[in-house]
Design a protein that fits this description.
- With about 280 residues, the protein is an alpha/beta fold.
- The longest helix has 24 residues, at about 85-110.
- The model has no long low-confidence stretch (mean pLDDT about 95).
- It has eleven helices and nine strands.
- It has two domains: about 1-215, 2-enoyl-CoA Hydratase, Chain A, domain 1; about 215-284, Lyase 2-enoyl-coa Hydratase, Chain  A, domain 2.
- It has a six-stranded mixed β-sheet, with helices on both faces. The protein has a three-stranded mixed β-sheet with strand order 5-7-8.
- The two termini are about 20 Å apart.
Length: about 280
């Protein structure tokens, strides 16, 4: 199981059908080193494939949520010094796509992903949190698209996802200038759902929200996530058509809906069957 593995950059705890992933490199400001880029998507895939939880909370340790990509990732020797220029650039493109996939997994997993953010959420960390379903932060949090300060363009998802969350004019200002967006502004702009006074109160509240989600039918919640993300990227007509296709296959009132009615009649919490596990190594 995921919870039995040990990691260099994070920890995983699963309780009450909620998986809590914690970034555990506070001395390095939870920067995203090479190990992180291997471990993070692996953990998310494991939880999804094993149906190990019905909701995921991602939080951090120390003063800051994450300082973004570790500079060591930029300076790592890729072994392309003597590679022909076109092929070298093609390899770089594949690397960028691989990094993008590490955060796109937050959208493709079947369960909602909630972010609990304290202090700085910088550079690559913004790429990560914009791929989540919901974001919550402390009053001292700030968000910064740092890449222009380094002479580069953000390339792992911020510029593609943030315009779907806040106004495009504000996105451009933040991207062009690299200025810090404080928690209050992030709340007003709609980037975060709630702002909390401190880290402990935020975690308590976000985990409670995740447990509330986990108490619902996992199939119904997965359907909500699928439909909302699809609607974000398609027309209303296309989204309604896709909804009809989803509902014709997934809506089985004799199962989860009937269990809810029975539970209410018996004055108990409903018990739902978990989503099926996925074995990525087999087709059948």
């Amino acid at each position: 199981m995921t919870t039995q593995k040990t990691y260099k950059t994070l920890s995983v705890d699963i309780n009450n059908k909620v998986a809590h992933i914690i970034l555990t490199r506070p001395d390095a400001l939870n920067s995203m080193n090479v190990d992180f880029w291997h471990e993070f998507p692996s953990v998310i895939h494991d939880i999804n494939n094993q149906s190990a939880a019905r909701a995921i909370v991602i939080s951090s340790t120390g003063k800051h949520f994450s300082a973004g990509m570790d500079l060591a990732v930029f300076s790592a020797n890729t072994g392309t010094d003597n590679v022909e220029l076109g092929r070298k650039h093609e390899q770089l493109r594949r690397l960028v796509l691989k990094l993008q996939d590490c955060f796109s997994v937050l959208e493709s997993v079947r369960m909602p992903v909630l972010m609990a953010i304290q202090g700085g959420c910088i550079g690559g960390a913004v790429d990560m949190v914009t791929a989540a379903d919901c974001r919550y932060c402390t009053s001292d949090a700030f968000f910064s698209i740092e890449e222009t300060k380094l002479g580069m363009t953000a390339d792992v998802g911020t510029l593609q996802r943030l315009p779907k969350l806040i106004s495009i004019g504000l996105v451009k200002e933040l991207a062009y200038t690299g200025r810090r967006m404080p928690a209050a502004e992030a709340k007003q702009a709609g980037l975060v759902n709630q702002v909390f006074d401190d880290h402990p109160s935020m975690l308590t509240a976000v985990l409670a929200i995740a447990e509330d989600i986990a108490s619902r039918s996992p199939l119904a919640v997965a359907g909500c996530k699928e439909m909302i993300n699809y609607a974000r990227d398609h027309s209303v007509a296309d989204s309604l058509n896709y909804m009809s296709v989803w509902q014709s296959g997934m809506f089985q009132p004799q199962n989860d809906m009937m269990e809810i009615f029975k539970a209410k009649a018996q004055n108990r919490a409903p018990e739902f069957e978990e989503l099926t596990q996925i074995n990525p190594t087999t087709i059948f």
